Amino acid sequence: MSNGYFCVLLGRHLCQKIQQHTRTSGRSHPNVREAVRQLPRDKVVVMTKSDTRDPAGLRRDLDRYRRELGIEMIDIVLIHCVTEADWTTRYRGAMDVLSEAKHKGVIRAHGCSCHTIEALRAAAASPWVDIDLVRLNPIGSHMDADPSIVISEIKKMRSQGKGIVGMKILGQGDLRDRPAEAIRYALSTGVLDAFTIGAESRKQQDNLTQRIAAA
């Protein structure tokens, strides 16, 4: 793997499933493509996201992503960085594109990454959301609200069968010197199905993987 932005989502079955988390720019897509080629496809869950709100543009994104990733079906596609309380109506066109893609087997699941408490509450109330990428860490750094408030919204989503992926586990670097504490917190909440932590090098990635395994 290159030293570009690269994250690994580590779920409860750490050794059984390695999930790749990519960016809208596609900068990580070539890395993921190479990883997917080396692993059984049914053991890899590929998740990416788009900040395109225009339906036609999002369709183009999906086609481009599949070419860059070298796969026919993307497991999870998220609408990236929703902030508005009314995003489920404001971006209905983009949501419909992803619903159509899911129906056609182009993607397996759709959802969003939330960046305000209002957007998070809208996601919790929306039956459209399959997967939510949520900011969570023990000190509330770069989060939508206090951890207890965010966890209460996550519990609502989990009760509806939504999948929850945690992000900002290290508080965008604010907990870089306390990774063990942050990882233990993420695992102990009982509300995350997986989480993502960015790594700038293979050394950092390996260190995080070891800490997660030891937690």
Sheet with the most strands: spatial strand order = 1-2-3-4-5-6-7-8
Helical run tally: 8
Pattern of helices and strands: EEHEHEHHEHEHEHEH
Task: Describe the sheet with the most strands.
Answer: 8 strands, mixed, barrel
Shape: globular
Our Rg estimate from Cα atoms comes to 16 Å
Structural features, described:
This protein has helices spanning 29-38, 55-69, 87-90, 92-104, 117-125, 147-159, 179-188, 202-214, and strands at residues 6-9, 18-21, 44-50, 74-82, 107-114, 131-135, 163-167, 194-199. By secondary structure, the chain is an alpha/beta fold. The chain has an 8-stranded mixed barrel, surrounded by 6 helices. Strand 6, helix 6 (147-159) and strand 7 form a beta-alpha-beta unit. Helix 2 packs across helix 4 (92-104) and helix 5 runs parallel beside helix 6. The longest helix has 15 residues, at 55-69. The chain is globular. The model is unreliable at 1-24 (pLDDT under 50).
